[in-house]
Design a protein that fits this description.
Elements: E1 18-19, E2 22-24, E3 27-29, E4 32-35, E5 40-43, E6 46-48, H1 49-63, H2 69-76, E7 82-85, E8 96-101, E9 104-112, E10 118-126, E11 134-138
Parallel strand pairs: 4-10
Antiparallel strand pairs: 1-4, 2-3, 5-6, 7-8, 7-11, 8-9, 9-10
């Protein structure tokens, strides 16, 4: 069940943060919560969610003192964490956002639930702290 939502261990709900609606010249990011799915790892640099994070970044997680993807993502994403938009990586309506803190980086992709409401799904999380793209806001 790769689309099963995991709980944030800090809040004990499915939200790992919230992004408010943001727009600029030629771009739009809808408002939505950030969620972590159980995911699937398809190979090096291919996959999404907790399974992908565990397969690709378990050593980085251990160095930071975390043994689960849920703990690692919750540790990186905090209220006030900057959000960057990598405009050169936008793919056919799927907006890619990067949440970057001093602790690491989380790559997000916009998705929609069965009611058509937008949310942000964690694709991956890792220890890189370099900012790429344009800063567009902060996590709420």
């Amino acid at each position: 069940m790769p689309n099963r939502l995991l709980l944030n261990p800090t809040t004990n709900n499915h939200s790992f943060g919230e992004i408010v609606e943001m727009s600029g010249r030629g771009w739009h990011l809808p408002a939505g919560i950030i969620v972590l799915k159980s995911g699937r790892h398809k190979g090096p640099h291919r996959g999404f969610g907790a399974a992908h994070i565990m397969a690709e970044h378990v050593k980085e997680m251990a160095v930071a003192g975390h043994s689960t993807a849920e703990d690692y993502v919750a540790w990186i994403i905090q209220p006030g964490t900057p959000i960057y938009c990598e405009f050169d990586r936008m793919r056919g309506g799927q907006r890619v956002a990067v949440v970057r803190s001093r602790r690491g980086k989380v790559i997000l992709e916009v998705d929609r639930n069965e009611l058509g409401q937008p949310y942000y799904s964690v694709i991956t999380a890792y220890s890189d702290t370099k900012a790429h793209g344009t800063r567009v806001g902060t996590v709420r």
